[in-house]
Write a structure and sequence with these properties.
This protein has about 200 residues and is an alpha/beta fold. The protein has a single domain, classed as 24 nucleotide stem-loop, u2 snrnp hairpin iv. U2 a', Chain A, CATH 3.80.20. Strands 1, 2, 3, 4, 5, 6, 7, 8 and 9 form a nine-stranded parallel sheet that branches. Strand 8, helix 3 and strand 9 form a beta-alpha-beta unit. The radius of gyration is 22 Å and the shape is globular.
């Protein structure tokens, strides 16, 4: 009996050592089903998850830092960032690789979209009234076919070269709505100007 118990304990110890080895993943994937709304910096700070199946809405006047969202890699339906007046960048979203749609509006201090640079496809991109936004370089890896583009009222936006990869691979894009920005190029003008300089 003692020998059987000893053998059983040895097997259990081996399993425990194997499961705690350095090759095992250190973080467990946490999928959040449905929609998530973060309306304050405190709620952003407490976020835990690697993917969201529905919408992620970020909207709060006191939100200044998205770094607690660095574990997030995918959003099934839509990223909606709105009315976050103090947010200057999207750096905390730098691991986000997959998102259905992107809606950014009324984020008055947002200067760039560099935090979105891992995203390769999006069906709809809507960027409205981000008054300090100067360029779209963070969208330069998006090459999905025929997205809906609506870019309006971004009064400091003077560089569209981040859209070059998307437009050059989809020259016949039909849903292109650009108006009331600092500059308002046509798709052909963006293609002619070429990609952003390194």
């Amino acid at each position: 009996m003692n020998k059987t118990l000893f053998t059983l304990l040895s097997i259990m110890a081996s399993i425990l050592v194997f499961s705690c080895s350095e090759d095992s993943p250190t973080e467990v994937e946490k999928v959040i089903s449905g929609d998530v709304t973060l309306s304050s910096q405190a709620e952003v700070n407490s976020f835990k998850g690697t993917s969201i199946t529905g919408w992620l809405t970020i909207s709060g006047a006191d939100i200044t830092d998205l770094s607690p969202l660095k574990t997030l890699t995918s959003i099934g339906f839509e990223l909606r960032l709105q009315d976050s007046y103090s947010l200057t960048n999207l750096d905390g979203l730098s691991n986000l690789a997959s998102v259905g749609n992107i809606y950014l509006y009324n984020n008055y201090s947002l200067t760039n979209l560099d935090g979105l640079s891992r995203i390769t496809s999006s069906k709809r991109i809507v960027i409205l009234s981000n008054l300090s936004l100067t360029n779209l370089d963070g969208l330069s890896n998006i090459t999905s076919p025929e997205p809906y583009l609506r870019i309006r009222g971004n009064f400091s936006l003077n560089s569209f070269c981040g859209l070059y990869p998307l437009l050059s691979s989809n020259a016949m894009i039909e849903n292109y709505d650009v108006l009331d920005n600092l500059v308002n190029p046509t798709p052909q003008q963006i293609i002619d100007d070429g990609p952003c300089a390194p």
